[in-house]
Amino acid sequence: MGIKVKEVADLVGISVRTLHHYDEIGLLTPEATTTSGYRLYSEEDLECLQQILFFKELGFPLKKIREIISSPSFNKSEALELHRKYLIDKRSRLDKIIATIDKTIEHTKGEINMSNKEKFEGFDFSQNPYEQEARERWGEKAVDDSNKKISSMSKKEKETANEKMIAIYTKLAELRYDSPASDEAQAAIKDWYDLLNNNFGSYNLETFKGLGKLYVDDKRFTKNIDKMGEGLAKFMSEAMAIFTDSKK
After folding, report:
1. Structural domain of residue 14, as residue ranges?
2. What is the percentage of the chain residues whose pLDDT exceeds 90?
3. How far apart are CA 3 and CA 80, in angstroms?
4. pTM recorded for the entire structure
């Protein structure tokens, strides 16, 4: 006897709508249905759902997950080992960021002094946690080009790009109380535009402006960017729009 969709939703902690969506896109189709048309999930279906959620936790888009788990070469045991490895790596990075936050709190209270380098320990811009949303907004090619460009970079090149990124963010954070149309702000935003295109993909002016809009429309982006300085996301968004419009 299988498990009904509502029972699976309650068991896992996801919505019935999500499970219906997985079925509609061919990601997880229940093994059977009742005579009344209710979906029935088997133990194997639940194992498949667990794999899907592990991949989602690591930032994989649903389309990519479907490709992986439907491949004849897919091996559940190997996948579990990889999930474990990557999640440990993710935990390690989060631990470093938490340690940086703790130091920053002490620094803010005047209890310790932090170097500029220490302020950014744990941050890693080589991976994009919003890959799925980027694919939905800008299409597969833009993100694939970005990933291809990043994967072709050497460790030294990635470190250099990361250092330049931090320097640009730091500069913009210092300028965020000035006008986003100022010469200094626009020069820094041009550096940001050039850095993205030289290291992380192909961004035309409209895509660049759309990215800036996302900085304020998506609270995840806003929260992350504002770690560098409250109001930075809004400032960058406005500066990016001005930069784009000035080039038309």
Report:
1. 3-69
2. 31
3. 24
4. 0.46
